[in-house]
């Protein structure tokens, strides 16, 4: 009998961390690996934000904050949602947590009963399906492909809804595909969900600022679904604050109260120093962050050009976030120098061992024919990684 619970045994390790740890171990062993695994900005946190953290320590912000966060931070989030997203949320509708990851699991824990269905458009972010399993729910996937920019249609969504559907969970901009839904597409989705008041939309908007083509639109801005939507966002991507672990949800009152209840028993709230620093971050003008977006944009264009020359990669131009998600079906079913490639996880291992480039296979994103590269890495590393893959794969 396993000492580990059945519930945990059903879960997989997070593949993003599995592959990044593998790359780290190889590097520590002296192997020259380029890691394009984890999606985390490679910039330093802006100085103003760091200073706010020093000040918070000196001002003795060393005790528990209110469970859903300091009122000043919830006010700053409320102001940000108004300024950037035209959304009206009172500070009491906001729950600050240890990263957007926790905000999502708070919401899922609050609404999912055993056997409830959560719709996940595939590809989806690795942790969604595992979180759904953790709270006893069942994920129901909607397949997409590179030909539709990995996006679902309102018709596909409506066909997937059953009496057990409790939530729709997606990210736009999307990790891993780099696509985002347009205003028209979001409106069509909102119109479907509005017909089913028992369904909650969990809209993960953590990449909102990393968008090269459009102005980010939140689905909560459609009045017909405002009362049915949980907006998820956080400090990790826009402010390069991944390790500070601050995320938040903005929800209808009943759901905000439920998140507070979950969090009060699980974590008692988020780190106080990081919360204080986040107030300063949110009060910055978003234009102060533009240098990061411009840099990602430049890297995206470089990688896209170089990727076109890699044999067997079918790639679209991602319009947002910082990932490429090429379709590598060409290699599936082949034997590459003695390695059977059954799916993209095998292919990612092959690349790691043979090209010394680490990426994440698409299986855990729900797309076994694709692989994910993060381009939150230096231009030199990106150029070298593309060269290594081109040389390695050119022979097959
Ligand atoms: N959602 C998506 C789509 C992500 O890529 C990530 C990864 N950082 C998260 C949520 C979690 O972010 P956080 O660091 O705020 O927990
Ligand atoms: N969200 C990032 C990624 O997808 C960080 C890793 C994680 O949280 O899984 O790579």
Automatic annotation (TrEMBL):
- Molecular function GO labels: pyridoxal phosphate binding; transaminase activity
Q: Which domain of life is it from?
A: Bacteria
Q: What class of enzyme is it?
A: transferase
The family database entries (InterPro entries) matched by this protein are listed as:
Aminotransferase_I/II_large, AspAT/PAT-like, NHTrfase_class1_PyrdxlP-BS, PyrdxlP-dep_Trfase, PyrdxlP-dep_Trfase_major, PyrdxlP-dep_Trfase_small
| Swiss-Prot/TrEMBL GO biological process terms | amino acid metabolic process
Cofactor requirements of the protein: pyridoxal 5'-phosphate
Keywords from the UniProt entry: Aminotransferase, Pyridoxal phosphate, Transferase
- Residue ranges of every copy of the Aminotransferase class I/classII large domain listed in the record: 32-388
E.C. numbers: 2.6.1.-
Q: Which PANTHER family match?
A: ASPARTATE AMINOTRANSFERASE (PTHR46383:SF1)
Family listed: Belongs to the class-I pyridoxal-phosphate-dependent aminotransferase family.
Protein name per the record: Aminotransferase
Q: From what organism does this protein derive?
A: Epilithonimonas mollis
């Amino acid at each position: 009998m396993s000492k580990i619970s059945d519930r945990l045994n059903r879960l997989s390790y997070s593949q993003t961390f599995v592959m990044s740890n593998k790359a780290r171990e190889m590097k520590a062993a002296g192997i020259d690996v380029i890691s394009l695994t984890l999606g985390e900005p490679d910039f330093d946190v802006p100085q103003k934000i760091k200073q706010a953290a020093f000040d918070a320590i000196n001002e003795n912000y060393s005790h528990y904050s209110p469970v859903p966060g300091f009122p000043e931070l919830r006010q700053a989030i409320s102001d940000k949602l108004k300024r950037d997203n035209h959304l009206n949320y009172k500070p009491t509708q906001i729950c600050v947590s240890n990263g957007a990851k926790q905000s999502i699991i708070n919401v899922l824990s609050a609404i999912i009963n055993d056997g409830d269905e959560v719709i996940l458009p595939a590809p989806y972010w690795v942790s969604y399906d595992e979180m759904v399993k953790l709270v006893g729910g069942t994920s129901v996937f909607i397949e997409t492909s590179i030909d539709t920019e990995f996006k679902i249609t309102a018709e596909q969504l409506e066909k997937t809804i059953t009496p057990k559907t409790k939530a729709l969970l997606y990210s736009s901009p999307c990790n891993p595909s780099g696509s985002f839904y347009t205003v028209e597409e979001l409106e069509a989705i909102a119109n479907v969900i509005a017909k089913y008041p028992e369904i909650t939309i969990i809209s993960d908007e953590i990449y909102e600022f990393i968008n090269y083509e459009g102005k980010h639109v939140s689905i909560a801005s459609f009045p017909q679904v405002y009362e049915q939507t949980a907006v998820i966002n956080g400090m990790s991507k826009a402010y390069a604050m991944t390790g500070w672990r601050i995320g938040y949800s903005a929800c209808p009152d009943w759901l905000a109260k439920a998140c507070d209840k979950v969090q009060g028993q699980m974590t008692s709230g988020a780190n106080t120093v990081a919360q204080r620093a986040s107030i300063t971050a949110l009060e910055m003008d978003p234009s102060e962050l533009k240098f990061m977006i411009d840099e990602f944009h430049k890297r995206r264009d470089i990688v896209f050009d170089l990727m076109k020359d890699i044999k067997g990669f079918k790639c679209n131009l991602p319009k947002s976030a910082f990932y490429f998600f090429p379709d590598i079906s060409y290699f599936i079913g082949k034997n590459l120098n003695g390695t059977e490639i059954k799916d993209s996880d095998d292919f990612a291992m092959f690349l790691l061992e043979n090209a010394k480039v680490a990426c994440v296979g698409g299986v855990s994103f729900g797309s076994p024919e694709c692989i994910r590269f993060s381009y939150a890495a230096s231009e030199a590393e990106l150029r070298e990684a593309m060269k290594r893959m081109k040389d390695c794969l050119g022979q097959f």
